[in-house]
Specification:
By secondary structure, this protein is of the alpha/beta class. It is built from 17 helices and eleven strands.
């Protein structure tokens, strides 16, 4: 029996993880569940899963959860804040941590899981984008096991030989990685009309059902940009090795090209339970509840080149990774603030890349060897982008 902590249990990835675990009650036990403010959802999950710990990042929400559960479930310990998240990510009895908090809030608990030598199932790409080398060093130093949940990275991982980590991609004969992108909801949208799109349109992804932040990232293609950076760290490679291509069906989740001309791909229906089950069971396989892929029904797989004019966020991410240091944390922070401002109706969709680019010009990066430096630059960038949001207003992004 393996004990698991699920960070971000009330989100799309968290709930999909519980769906997979529920199919294998003999193998996994839920030790801790966490959420930000959604007391109703976490109360339900606690009643259903009876974890030893439940954490609300928000302290008022933690108090509410405590009041709701103290009589019926006195054995569940309720914790609050980042300290609570870090604590349940590092519990000695826990061997697997699902890192599925969205955004920079996931950095400290995810890093704590790595520093405690856990099997870390990484969905929270922002944590790795922010802390890159520092995070990977923690994984090595504390002998953590890092398994990608992002469907593209999970696909690449499945297409690589197990010895790639020690040897490096070139040594195992890899030429190129193709990261596939569905193209999001605005792949064919009139580019002139993009400034008119609403948050609900941006969140209506054609293939995946996801949280609102990653849905907007998919619409701007910043999600793919963050994924390029994520892939560079996970697979110890450079942006030049990674090519993004549009594949509207979202059946091939990524491909690895070898020097002998072989191109290996991982295919499945677009359902996050496949990578989640893969990482939970690795190196074994287990049932995930996912509909089998019917090749005859799919019949056709298409590929298109990506336009950096339509999707400037992708260019910004490539540039930030090439600059290195805290620049990727600055990119991530500016993006988080801009996306939230768009979701709140404060700025237009087309203002998102503009705000990020301005932030990157004004807030300069430095070496990212200390966590403190990364957190400081994250805050500097947030402050700068927030000021831009105020001065921008809704119409400036047109
Ligand atoms: P979501 O918005 O559905 O869920 C986010 C979870 O994080 C919730 O449980 C929420 O309570 C928690 N959370 C939010 N803010 C927090 C804070 N400040 N402190 C503590 N907890 C907080 O998001 P999601 O779609 O499940 O995505 C989660 C992560 O997984 C993201 O980093 C995303 O990029 C990544 N990811 C998601 C998908 C997908 O298909 N949904 C695919 C690949 C990667
Ligand atoms: Mg992805």
């Amino acid at each position: 029996m393996k004990n698991i902590t699920i960070l971000g249990a009330t989100g799309t990835i968290g709930l999909n993880t519980l769906d997979v675990i529920q199919r294998h009650p003999q193998q996994f036990q839920v030790t801790a569940l966490t959420a930000n403010t959604d007391v109703d959802r976490l109360t339900e999950l606690c009643q259903l899963w009876q974890p030893r710990y439940a954490v609300m990042a928000d302290s008022q929400a933690a108090e509410q959860l405590h009041n709701r559960l103290k009589h019926s479930h006195p054995h569940i310990q309720i914790l609050a804040g980042t300290e609570g998240l870090v604590q349940v990510a590092s519990l000695p009895e826990v061997s697997i941590v699902m890192a599925a908090i969205v955004g920079s809030a996931g950095l400290l608990p995810t890093l704590a899981a790595a520093q405690s030598g856990k099997r870390v199932l990484l969905a929270n790409k922002e944590a790795l984008v922010m802390s890159g080398q520092l995070f990977m060093d923690a994984v090595t130093q504390h002998q953590a096991e890092l398994l990608p949940i992002d469907s593209e990275h999970n696909a690449i991982f499945q297409c690589l030989p197990s010895c790639y980590e020690r040897a490096g991609l070139a040594t195992v004969g890899v030429n190129q990685i193709y990261l596939t992108a569905s193209g999001g909801p605005f792949r064919n949208h009139d580019i002139e009309q993009l400034h008119e799109v609403t948050p609900d349109q941006a969140c209506a992804h054609p293939k995946w059902k996801m949280g609102r932040k990653i849905s907007v990232d998919s619409a701007t293609m910043m999600n793919k940009g963050l994924e390029v950076i994520e892939a560079c760290w996970l697979f110890a490679t450079t942006p030049a090795t990674i090519q993004v291509i549009i594949h509207p069906q979202s059946i091939i989740h990524s491909l690895v090209e070898y020097v002998d001309g072989s191109l290996l791909a991982q295919l499945s229906n677009p359902d996050m339970r496949t990578p989640i089950a893969h990482a939970l069971a690795f190196p074994q396989r287990m049932e995930a509840g996912v509909k089998r892929l019917n090749l005859l029904e799919i019949a056709q797989l298409e590929f298109e080149a990506i336009s950096l004019t339509r999707f400037p966020c992708l260019r910004l991410a490539y540039d930030a990774m090439s600059q290195g240091g805290t620049t990727t944390a600055i990119l991530n922070a500016a993006n988080e603030v801009a996306v939230q401002a768009f979701l709140d109706g404060q700025i237009r969709f087309t203002a998102i890349p503009q705000l990020i680019e301005k932030t990157l010009t004004h807030v300069t990066g430095r070496a990212a060897t200390e966590l403190q430096t990364i957190l400081e630059d994250d805050q500097r960038a947030r402050g700068f982008t927030a000021e831009l949001v105020k001065s921008y207003g809704r119409d400036a992004g047109a």
